[in-house]
Amino acid sequence: MHSVTVRQCVILLENTATHTLPLSLILCGDKPFVAWLMREMQRFGVEEFVFLTSRYSQDIATAVENIGDFLPRFAKITISVTQPEVGTGGALHHARSHLQERFFLCSANALFSCNLARFLTAARSSHWMLLRQAGPHDKQARMRFEAGNLVSFCGDIEANDQQLINAGLYLFDASICELLTEVCSLEWDVIPRLVENQNLRGMPLTGDFYSFENGSALEKVLGQMSQRLRRPAVFLDRDGVINRDFGWVGTKERFEWEPGAREAIARLCDSGYHVFIVTNQSGIARGFYSENDLVMLMDWVMDSIREYGGTVDDWRYCPMHPEAAIEQYRGYSADRKPEPGMILDLLKRWELDPMCCVVFGDQPTDMQAAKAAGLQSVMIGPESLSDLVPKLNISSYENELLERPRHGIGR
C-alpha cells in the first residue's frame, strides 16, 4: 500500500501590486501569515513547499527564504516564477519539474485548522478537493456529488444555507499535468475538465477556515486564529504506550501496536491537540539497530497513524546511554529521560504553553521528565492509552487530569 502521507505543498502566492511584499509574507504578530499555513501542513508530514508567483523581487526572495526561521521543522522551500498572463494553471505547468507524485495545492492567503489526516486517509489516489460547510456570509457555488465524484457547481449560496463549498485546498497527483497548458486557469479550465470527466472527488472536514483579501481582513483573521492555532499538546512515550515494549524495538519486524493506540491518537487530533513522541533509544547505543533504522521505522509508524486518521506532529529520540557499547553514544545527555531536554526542545520549537501540555508514559522516568519540564503527566498501566483517552474530557483536559491523582498526575 502506498504511503498516505503527502510531503509536498504548492502555494499560490497572491499578486498584490500595491505592496512591496504580498500580504501573506508580511510579518503579522510574530510570524508571516503563510508561516502559519506551512506550520499546520508540517503537522501532517509536509516537508517541501513550492511557491508559485508572477511577481519576483529580491524582497520576495528574501522573505520566502526567511520563512524557514518561523517554522518548527526544517522544510525545503522553492520559488517558481512565471509571467502574470499564464494564469494559475500555467504557473503550475511551469513548475511541473518540481512536483512530486502527490501534492497539496492551496492559496497563500488561506489557512485551515482541522485534522487533515482524515482527508489523507480518504484521498489516497486521484484528485481531491477539501470541502467545508458554507457559513452565513459565504457566496461560493454549492457542490453536487454522484458516487463521491463532483459533478456540478450549483449556483450561489443563500444566507444560512448550510451546503458544502470549496475549502481552498486541493490534493492532486502528477497526472494533473496532462490537463495543464502553458496558459490556463485552474479555476476556469482545469477544474471544470476534472468535473466533466468525474475525476474530482471531495471530502468535508469540520474545523476552522480562514482567508483574507486585504490588510484589514488579515488583522481580523489573525485575531480569530490566534487561540485556535496555539494548541494544547500531548507528549507520548513510545514503547509501552503506542507499541508493545519488547525491549529495544528498532525495526518494523519487532514493532507491535498497542491495541487502540492509533485510534486514541486520532481522537486527540480530532480534538485539536498537537501530538508528539519523545523516546529514549538506547538500543542504538547498544548496537541493536542504527539511527537510520529508527528513522525508517518512525516514518512507517507516523504514516500508519495517519492511515487511522491521526498524526504525530513531531518526535524526538535520544540514543545516548552511560554504558553504551558504541563509544559515540556513551555518556550523559540532557535529552535522555528522566531529563527533560526532548520535551523542552519541542516546547520551544512549537511555541507551546507547558500549562496546556500533558505527558503519557509507562515509566517513572517519563513522569520525572514531565515534572522537570513543568508538564502534567499520566502513568500508563494498567490502563492503556486507548483506555485513558476516552475517559478524559478532552475539551477540558486540565480539569480532568487534575481529578485523576491515582494515575500519577503531578506537576
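Next protein, fold it too.
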Amino acid sequence: MTETDTIIFDTANRIFDDLSTPEVINAAEEGEWPKALWQAIEESGLNLTWVPEANGGIGASLLDGFAVIKAAGAAALPVPLAETLMAGWLLSKAGLEVSSEPATVGLGEVQYVNGVLNGTINAVPGGRSAKQLVVVCKDGNDWLVAQVATDQCQIAAHNSLAGEPFDSMTLSDVTPVQSGVLTGGMDADSVQAMGALIRCVQAAGALSAALELTIEYSMERVQFGRPIGKFQALQHSVAAFAGEVAAINAAADAAAEALSRADGVVDHEAWVEIATAKTRLEEAVNTGAAVAHQVHGAMGFTYEHRLHHLTRRLWSWRDEYGNETVWAKRLGEEVLSWGADELWPKITAVSNA
C-alpha cells in the first residue's frame, strides 16, 4: 500500500469500528438512519473515494475504493456506502458532478424519451435510504447515466434478507437532475459486472470477519472440559471455512486488480475475473455461513450478536447482480468463445495476471 492507501484504509476501519456497532445496525433495521455514521463518512470523504477531484471527489484509485468496500463488508455497514461509491463512479464516467448524499444505482426497464424517465426498477439496494438514484438506460444508440432525486420516485418498500431496504422504485415522467453518456463502450452489462464485483468484495470482507469471530468463539466456548476449538472435527470444519475465505478473497482481489488495470472499463480480462469471483461466491458463502453458525450455535442468531449481521448480508449479496448460475453461464460462454487452441494460453494468462 502507498501512504495514501494506508490513510484511507485506516480511516475507514476506525470509523466503521467505532460507529457500526450491533446496536446501530439493529436500530437501522428498525428504520433509524445512522446519522453519526454517515456524517463521519461524509466528513472523511470516503463516500467520494472513486470520484475525481474535477467532479467534486477525492480522486483515489479503484483499489482504494475496493479496500473501503471490503472494510464496509467486514463491519456489516448499515448505510449504502458501496452503492454510493458505485453511483459516484458511474456519474464520473459520464463527466457529471457528484454530491455527497447517499445514493444508489438502478438497473431495470427504464425508458428515456423526450427528456423524461419512465419505468420501474425492482430490488434497488438501499432504495429509500438514498437521496439520489442513478439510472442506467438506453438513449438511442448510447447508454445514458441519469441522476434523479428519490423523492421523485414512487417507492414500494421491501427488505433484503439482511433487513436492509431493497425497494421497487417507479419513475413516472421524471426529469433527471442531470444526465450524460457513458464513455469507454460501457453498457448495462458492464454496470452489472461492476455491481457483482462490489458484492464479491463486500462478501470477502464479511466472510473474513465471520471467520475471525468463529475462531475466537471456538477458543472461548468450553465443552467437556476444553475449548471446542480443540476438537478435531470442529477444526476440520473451521479449516474448510478458512479455505473458502482465502479463495473468495483471492478471486475478488484478482478481479479488482484486473478492473484497475483496465482503467475502470470492464474488458475481457476483467470480465473473466469478475465472472470467476461471482461464480465462486456462492460456495464460499454457503460453506462459511453454515460453519460459523454451527460453531456459534444459538448464540450466533441472537439479536445482539454480530454474526447474524454478517451472514444475513452474505446470503443477500450472494444473489445480487446475478447469482452463481447466471455468472457460470456467462463464464462458460466466454471460455467457449476462445476455441480449443486458445483455451490453455488464455487460462494461464489470466492466472498469471
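About the second fold: Strands lie at 103-107, 109-113, 116-125, 132-139, 142-149, 154-156, 166-174, 178-181, 222-223, 226-227.
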